[in-house]
Amino acid sequence: MPIVCLGMRPVIGTELNWIDIDYAQCAYAAAKFLFQLGHQRVTIIDDESERMQLYLSGAMRAKAQFANGTHGSAIVSLEPLRSLSHVAQHERPTSYLCPNMRLGREILKSAAESQLVVGRDISVIAYDDGTIGPLEQDPALTVCRVSIDLLARRTLEALCRLIDTNAAYGGDPFVKTELVIGKTTGEPATR
Fold first, then answer.
1. What is the phi-psi region of residue 119: left when phi exceeds 0, alpha when psi lies from -120 to 50, beta otherwise?
2. Nearest to 191 by CA among 85, 91, 111
3. From CA 126, how far away is CA 62, in angstroms rounded?
4. Would residue 156 count as lying in a domain?
5. Buried b (16+ CB within 10 A) or exposed e, 41-72
6. Which domain holds residue 81?
7. Which tens digits make up the pLDDT trace of 71-125?
8. Is residue 181 part of a domain?
9. Number of domains in the chain
10. Tell me: the pLDDT tens digits for 5-49?
11. Looking at residue 121, which CATH number applies to its domain?
12. Model's pTM, two decimal places?
């Protein structure tokens, strides 16, 4: 029976076929967009999952790309979720990258409690893991979203390659996300 693992990377050395989200590309695209807007400090909210190193490597790649330009002092950090009211203004990052919608909503809630305007005082991008529907998004979060159609097509292609023994493997197991701009990102406010 042909098996393709979806959303799970196998242990190195196993012969499993798999498809997964390209989390490094997701973080790269999000951080690149934030640096292009003029943000100097991007904080990835750590959900303590195994994906965090992928998010960090992608964001660091975006930082390296911008380090030679006007973003020479750019910072990428990996931090736990904490209330923005407990962070001094001079320490507060201007942008946040959240690995899921729940953490994105937590940052929005904390910003409201701290009387920060999201999209002006801080910018927030979340990976759309499908846990919050579009009707619940106010303001509409800027998200990194995977196309379900693309994910399904890539999974079916991988299964077809397993069934057809004459088909040569050549499929990329990574599915890229697209950046969907919402109301939660903007140029950083001047201080």
1. left
2. 91
3. 17
4. no
5. bbbbbbbeeebbebbbebbbbbbeebeeeebe
6. 25-145
7. 567 889 988 887 776 666 667 788 999 999 999 999 999 999 989 999 999 999 9
8. no
9. 1
10. 777 666 665 666 778 889 999 999 999 999 999 998 899 999 988
11. 3.40.50.2300
12. 0.84
